[in-house]
Amino acid sequence: MSSVSASELISWWEAGARQHPVERAVTLLSAWSREPREKTASLSIGRRDRQLGAIYQSLFGPVLNGFAECLKCGERLEYEIVIPELHSDATSGNQQEITLSSGELFLHLRLPNSFDLIAVSGCHDVDSAQRTLGRRCVIDARVGESAIAVDVLDDSTWEEIAARLAESDPGAETLIDLTCSACAHNWQVMLDIERFLWAKINVMARRLLREVHILAQTYHWSEAEILALTPTRRQLYLEMVQA
């Protein structure tokens, strides 16, 4: 682990422990970048996830180790993802606002962000979630020179909006191709970089707190004093305690 102190990582963990994963992603980005939550929450989902990947790589290295069960035979599969190879061709996604026109219809759109994902998290089905997301991302809708309400858009237009938003922010949904070694079944899983990052932070924070507990009981040092030790010195004290 690098770039973040032990006490900072525990603070991240404490702040995110009870949050919804979308809110937690914003918390981690804000803590890492030291930018206001309003700014990090406004990032497009693709750009947000690339930055979460950069945090993971800086703290824990460039390789993600994942596990999945075959959908056909139930065989457990291990797989690796190399972070620098993710979205290597994703040159778009930096354009936060886009346009869509068809005949006289003109739509001014923006890319979905974390605020939008939080807003749709309470939707009960995919269709209502897509519609809610689309409505939030339409900045302006016009036919010729006249403004129109987004509620009058037909199904085909909503499908076009969804396709255009996905095309403009390719990193927002990353699918991993998997093949079962037992039955050769092929399928895809969606990469959730926040889940990988949080799992690592959760394990690391709990390990650090266990170390604090052991050393505080033995030497009666404060948490701050123990966490201020370098990892090498902290490990040496632990080895002496446990010898």
Describe this entry's structure for a reader.
It is a single chain. The chain has 243 residues and is of the alpha+beta class. Helix 2 packs across helix 4 (45-60) and helix 8 packs across helix 10. The mean pLDDT is 91. Helix content is 51%, strand content 18%. It is elongated, with a radius of gyration of 23 Å. The chain has a four-stranded antiparallel beta sheet with strand order 3-4-5-6. The chain folds into two domains: 6-89 and 175-242, no CATH class; 97-168, no CATH class. It has helices at 6-16, 21-33, 37-41, 45-60, 114-120, 126-137, 155-168, 193-219, 223-228, 231-242; strands at residues 63-69, 76-82, 97-102, 105-110, 138-143, 146-147, 175-179, 186-190.
